[in-house]
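Example record for the data management plan.
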Amino acid sequence: MKLLTIAIPCYNSSAYMRNCIESLLPGGEEVEILIVDDGSVKDNTAEIADEYQERYPTIVKAIHQPNKGHGGAVNTGMANATGLYFKVVDSDDWVDPEAYSAILDTLRGFVENEETPDLLLSNYVYEKEGAKRKKVMRYPDMFPKNKIFGWDELKRIPMTKYVLMHSMIVRTQLLRDVKLQLPEHTFYVDNLFAFVPYSMIQTMYYLDVDFYRYYIGRPDQSVNESVMIGRIEQQLKVNKLMIQYMHSCRGLKGKQRRYMIHYLSIIMTVSSAMLIRSGKPEALKKKKELWRMLKKSDIRAYRNCRYAATGIFTNLPGKPGRLVFQVMYKGAQKLFGFN
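Corresponding structural encoding:
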């Protein structure tokens, strides 16, 4: 069995996918690289995938499928994974070579010691086009370092910090046990990947290395604010699925439940912010409906999200409240570097 399966969802990615693949090849025979060509027709993505499979037949597997969107490509990666652990690396991103080596050393140690935690966490770096300083998302204030730990050892949950898919390497069988299936033809499904497994995750390990390099800069990128506003229905779809899943996890307790509610609160804030930023009356109506759905689904989760600082700021009353929020949002945008 391979130590690690890395799935690369590719959709018309020929301009940058080579850089991604080349950064992963140093993992050698311990790593399985699944290049999922998600119905690319506008460029030679499919040919590049086949080229790498031919050159590295024991490491790389090219999978061609009709277009199903990012979630459908990740689903295909999970279904075909043979590695002990599973990670997604998007085709315009890449990994740091020294951190990659440390990651594989850590996974190897798990196997040798016959201890396989459910989740390996590491840092990611915003590779933002034009930014003078690169922002690194680290978690030493949340997680103990270099040891296997459970929820009881979670240190704290800072208000603005949560774990994105970029930081996660998940035990493959756990993903199957939790029956994770992402919706097809939908953006922002990475939030479900970084949310649903936590209902079953019990043991974790945090390696404080800057592994994942998250590129931000293409004008058509899904995290671009104007793009997000244009695709707000897909953001809301993911948000509502998270609310529904939280309803099914009402039996969770302690820091595990607290973390999942914290993540849900962040996504509620993102959805609310995009709806406010759109400035349309129907968008404000949708924001009220979203919060109403959470209240009806899980009153405890609603109270936790609504009366957290982020929930208060996104629900300041009336036009003056929305103007105050806009000022605060712009300040946070500049401080944290998101789009």
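Summary line stored alongside the record: The chain has a mean pLDDT of 93.
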